[in-house]
Amino acid sequence: MRVNSRNSDLIAKLRRENSDDTFGNPYIQKAKQLTGLLYTLEEIGESFPNIFQDNSLPIILEIGCYKGANVVELGQYNPNVNILGIEVRYKRVVKSCEKITKRQLTNCKIAIGEANELLGLIPGESITGAFVFFPDPWLKEKLRKNRLLNENFLKRLQSRLKPGGFLWFKTDDKEYFEDSLVLAREVGYEAPAPWPRELVEREYKSRFQELFISQGKPTYQAVMRK
């Protein structure tokens, strides 16, 4: 079992067994109760894309959605698109769901679990795009193998994207940015590519982007298209 999948597995187990054994963590209890809005990997494998009210709409993933601000912004400005935010931590997925509920957005859902595993559970050519905003750059050379944007991830995502589907990538690390563009081209993406025409044109700033801007730090972004 991957470490980042344990939280998803626990929520699935608690739901199956209707158990209240949440180890004193209030966010586990809340996550368990968010059926129909927060999905475990097990539930994604069983029900995707029927988790959405209108599953005929294009589906876009936000991988590493933090506490859901971008998911909500995407859902509000793009009502004709379905948004699935992905996170691994209990508190973050609960906070994301609370934002969605507050704004009564029917085109937004959250999944708890590791992105690579989730991609392995959904059908090929089933999504229109994906956001990866400011993932951990793993700056130490010996840890760079942990970077999300590696060859395996890019190939798996590519196989799940519809023809012409996109990946929108942002980072504060120039080397990670340049390496990712090179790798994406080697895998077969057009990189960089034009703005995602599927979305209303906005910056969709993440919390981390706003932080870096306030600190005067440069950020880098590109769209990559299948």
Walk me through what this model shows.
The protein is an alpha/beta fold and 226 residues long. The protein has one domain: Vaccinia Virus protein VP39 (Rossmann fold), CATH 3.40.50.150. It is built from 9 helices and 8 strands. The chain has an 8-stranded mixed sheet. Helix 1 packs across helix 2. The chain starts with 5 loop residues before the first helix and ends with a strand. The mean pLDDT is 95.
Which characteristics define this entry?
Rossmann fold; alpha/beta; 226 residues; 8 strands; eight-stranded mixed beta sheet; single chain; 9 helices
User: In percent, how helical is the residue content?
Assistant: 25-40%
Q: What is the string of SSEs from the N terminus onward?
A: HHEHEHEHEHEHEHEHE
Order of adjacent strands in the largest pleated sheet: 1-4-3-2-5-6-8-7
Name of the CATH superfamily: Vaccinia Virus protein VP39
> Tally the helices: what do you get?
9
- In one word, what is the shape? globular
Strand portion:
15-25%
Number of domains: 1
> What is the name of the CATH architecture?
3-Layer(aba) Sandwich
- CATH topology label: Rossmann fold
User: What structural class is derived from the secondary structure elements?
Assistant: alpha/beta
Major β-sheet, in short? 8 strands, mixed
Number of strands: 8
Distance between the termini: 31 Å
Radius of gyration: 17 Å
Mean pLDDT: 95
Q: Provide the CATH top-level class.
A: Alpha Beta
| Poorly predicted segments | none
